[in-house]
Amino acid sequence: MGICADDGQRLWAVERGAGAPVVCCHGGPGLWDMFEDVTLPGRVIRWDQRGCGRSAPGGPYSLARTVDDLDAVRRAFGLERMALFGHSWGAQVALRYALDHPERVTELVYVSGVGLGGSWHAEFLENFLARLGADRPRWEELRTRERTPDEDRELAVLQWTTDFADTSRAREHAEGMATPWFEVNYECNAAIAAEEPRVWREPELVAECRALTVPVLLVDGAADIRPRRAVDSLAAALPSVDRVVLPGVGHVPWLEAPREFYAAVSGFLTRTT
């Protein structure tokens, strides 16, 4: 389904199932919806963010613009209120939307987000390079030169292998995430990363989160290379929060622990509906 944002930009979206609506926000920035294999209860709506995946090319790109596009998805599907399911960068988008429009959100499922501050970056990079291991020379080569489309996919797969704790299946999972393949929107990624210090400031966010009455479920993989301590201040600030930490699981918990992940998420959504 093609829908239009308030500035006329076309966004790709799809729905399946019936019942209470759950709108998904994918990771990135600059990537696309990879939730085809995620099982959620209810009427599940997925979409590709502006300029990414199956949505029309072109910006502008910002956190505020992404939040406005999410509201366009809500309106296009005729929803007064909805649950939000966000993964990684998408968890940040979903949280920002809930803070801006709490009256439109029934529940928030925040999966593998990076919390309220930016202090996690240095530790993440150290963990990322360590988990790359023998793939680091090839990754270094690819990232520092012009690439063919096939090499661009190879670079993404190498990076995504670090998102999995089980190294014996990491390449398999990463290849699955890259199939089907859409070009990474590096312009989008750079624009949103550049604004982070200005728009994502922990002291202000803590104060906003303390006033949020929407029920929130935090789901973490204990072996995520993004340090989970970065989410501690978010968990402490939210007045209505549950937190599930899955042992031996990385950044994409529905692939490494599907039964445990579904039990946590479905239990939360059906309990609070």
UniProtKB/TrEMBL annotation:
Keywords: Hydrolase
Domain AB hydrolase-1 as annotated: residue spans: 21-257
Domain of life (superkingdom): Bacteria
UniProt entry tagged with the keyword Manganese: no
InterPro entries, per the entry: AB_hydrolase_1, AB_hydrolase_fold, AB_hydrolase_sf, Peptidase_S33
Pfam families recorded: Abhydrolase_1 (PF00561)
Gene3D superfamilies: alpha/beta hydrolase (3.40.50.1820)
SUPFAM superfamilies attached to this UniProt entry: alpha/beta-Hydrolases
Keyword Acyltransferase applies: no
Family: Belongs to the peptidase S33 family.
Protein name per Swiss-Prot or TrEMBL: AB hydrolase-1 domain-containing protein
Organism: Amycolatopsis minnesotensis
